[in-house]
Amino acid sequence: MNKKFLRRISVLFLFAVLFTAISPLVCFATADDEPSREFVRWKLSEDERTLSDGKTTYTRYHLPLGVILDARSEYRYENTVFLDGEYTSLISNQPGGQVVWSNYGNFVFVTDSAREDLDAFVENDKGIMRLWVNEDAREATIAEETVSALNALAESGGRTVSVQELEDALVYILYLCDESNIFCKEYGGIYKLSGKLYYLNYRTLSNNHFDSEGYFSYRSGSVTVYPLDNTLTNAVRDADEKAEYRGYETIWENEEGWLEVVGDSFPIAYAFWGFVLPIAFTSLGAILPTVKKRTKCWGILTLLGVLWLILATVLMILML
Amino acid sequence: MFRKLFSYDMRAVKPIFKLQALISLILSVFCGLAQRRLNYGRMDDTYQGLLITFVSLCFVWFFASYFIVQVNYFNYCKKNFYSDEGYLTFTLPVTRRQLLWSKTLGCVTLGAMQMLLYLTVGAIMLLLAPVPDKGSVLSLEGYRMLFRGLADWWNSVGAWMLVYLLEIALLLGCLQLLFGAIVFYCEALAAARKKKTKGVTAVFIGILIYYVINSFLGLSIFSLSLGYSNPLSLLTLLVGIFERLNAQTVNAGWALVLGAACTAASSFGWILVCLTLDRLERKLNLT
Q1: What is the pLDDT of residue B131?
Q2: With contacts defined as CB-CB under 8 Å, which chain A residues touch B267?
């Protein structure tokens, strides 16, 4: 063996030791801080009023008519409970959330702190006001002042229309939602009738205008709607322009299973793809010219291998 | 001389590529119109079934024609190097390196041309598939959605979008180089055997090897489940990286991942090109 060959081998050996030594650092890189997604074993009390995950206790909450369960994200637990004569899966808005509900949303369980918040939301009209564009499932938040101005329209003259006429019109629905974005109440509707916008405050209507689930009913009857002035029309149009498509995020608890698999094998995969392979290429590129000719060809391979190592190292530093 | 070699190789693939382009462009019009009819709805089940079958067959053609043209090109290269034609090829006043590079560059260029063709096909279908408003023939709704998507992407990542697009184009080029390099190396190995492998067998073996490698890495759609159970899977790697990047590092991180993927694919491709060249120069067997 010539000296040149030995020198290259020793340099490569140093490289290999260096990179293999730092590659386990990636094992310490951890995922972003997020709530624990540990598998939960739910326990339901015999009277079906108390639910527990071993750490937190939830008690049954009876949602009054008109309060809608409308979470924007769902975390679906794997473990089921025997509730009301059948096995049902449980859902929360996030892992370890303060509110848990059954698959069809007909049973809601809350923690003590969530109960206080929810009571306050049910009793008072305080929360986030959202404008829902019924035509294409978009929504935007709307300022409280705009809602107050809409409510004040009742002092001006209105127009009486049948609810069937409203059913065919383009509608923006105002929802009052709680801070956790899980519960909402239908607050009012803005209807487009013959090119003009009219407001209907659902709060001022009697019970016979709502269906059995508390939604505004278009079955029969007539209501008084109030025309929006230019300022309010512009405010609604602005909100419509800003409205964005409302997506729903669903996460299944059993994803945790594969995340754990990935978590276990990630350092191996990263060490292999980020360090072992490029070191092999760099070594080949450095050794082969001494065995076979074509120095330039193998030299480029060395360069590619080194570039690969550098990129993998920088990426690893970013993940730490 | 290299330019002449390259244009000669491209000329060889021109007729079949033209045929692919012509059929694909015509099909894209009909496929777009069929999709529009399906989007419009209200039709009987038999008619709907026929339209869905037609649209599916169009997509089968778009997928298969890529391989038909590529296999045709690799077969041309095989004949050019390892059949009786090789006696003429290797007497040309060019080095074997130039000969191989001309073929490799031809493979990447052909891939790029096919990619442009598919973009055109996509653009036509995007124009025809959405149901237009009354009184107009074409609908720009598809383009509006596309540009809205691009604008949203730009708003969320900023100028990184340009870096990503550039890197994705580069990665596609590197993967095409890797694909060509594997097939060329298989051809070189097959040509060295005493009992010559006939026809396009070597080309198919090359394609098969490419897909076996992809399946092992969890890149093939048929092996996604295998992907997670295999600790060296690229899926494990990518999901792990995704979990570990935070809001500040996510853009630079993915740019690095794409850059590393380009480097890795070109390293694999390069080593195979070097090995093929070694075979061409030292172990060529035309008998």
Answers
A1: 77
A2: 278, 281, 301, 304-305, 308
